[in-house]
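Tutorial handout. Part one gives the primary structure; part two gives the three-dimensional structure as tokens.
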Amino acid sequence: MQHSEALVTNDAVVLGMLAVLLGLVFWTQQSRHPFWQRFYAVVPALLLCYFLPSLLNTFGIVDAEQSNLYYVSSRFLLPACLVLLTLSIDLPAIGRLGPKAIIMFFTGTAGILFGGPLAMLFVGLISPETVGGTGPDAVWRGLTTVAGSWIGGGANQTAMKEVFEVSNETFSQMVAVDVIMANIWMAVLLFLSGRAARIDAWNGADTRAIEDLKDRVTRFQSRHARNVTLPDLVFMLAIAFGVTGFAHAVAGWLGPWIEAHAPGLARLSLTSEFFWIIVVSTTIGVLLSFTRVSRLEGAGASKVGSVMLYVLIASIGMGMDIGAVLDNPGLFGVGAVWISIHATLLIVMARLIKAPLFYLAVGSQANVGGAASAPVVASAFSPTLAPVGVLLAVLGYAVGTYAAWLCGLMMQAVAAAG
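Part two.
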């Protein structure tokens, strides 16, 4: 086994460092000092919560690959926070958002589906060696894992690695392309979220359905608001982690069962245990929203869920290595063109149908970021809108592997033609 050369290898210490970074961000955000007020008027606090931990990995203070924090937060905290975030979801109100939200989601999917082959074609004309390679090291094979991640998530990405037999070396390069390019785009969306009102006014977008949903959730919260008690917090944790445990139990049985009896469904991520963990926890959270359990929102269930979410954000950010851009810059050129096609298509469609910026941002992140970042971007517009991101992200998991598989076949054709 290779030993990490990082300065800090103890996950307990790493967790403490991440917690301190999150605390500093929130402390400075609340500061009345003119510098910090001007700073946060330009830079979203949420963005810092993501990128500051990346410096720990970039400068060798921690080694994200050797740490188990992302695994723990994604497998335990993510499903738990999804339950707490969906407790107060108002499905009829979300339905009243209209078809534009779904249109923007599938526009984002199309941008990734066709953007990959187009990016390969464009970069191949300038630098053929960048998109070359043979066998398991062929670049087009590696790019299928980026497609899987950007249309669905980590489960879909892993599925593409197995379906197209990508080598570990190529896969590690593609992870850097995936994380860095996706999060640069996420940074742009977070930056734009603070200017949503002006952008929507310029676009002539009708945001009344969104405002109505926010008002309904706010009224629900105020109607059931109360002082938080110890039993409230215990009930929240019992429900959140109880559902998480149940989701793991179901996923641990259902994923292998499907793999044994219908292995062809692996292309739809239906053999992935992580996929079922997300689906089961989100589904139960939605079902609980129709029960008296939803009243826990009055005691701050979504706030407790948000704390878990911020720990997840920090652990995701810790996995980003800014210095990886220098290792193989040509691949990042492919990623840059690819994500630009995705972004351009979304902007054009939003302009055509006069969709609010919120639909563009969440529709994009439900594809590119999945369940981890779609609710994050949604909450940047308003914490009450996080469930919309969750629901669209689950849709992304459902279509991700199939669409990425089609994208991979198209990129294979481009590589063969070159």
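Part three, for discussion. Residues 154 and 359 are 23 Å apart (CA to CA). DSSP finds 18 helices and no strands in the chain.
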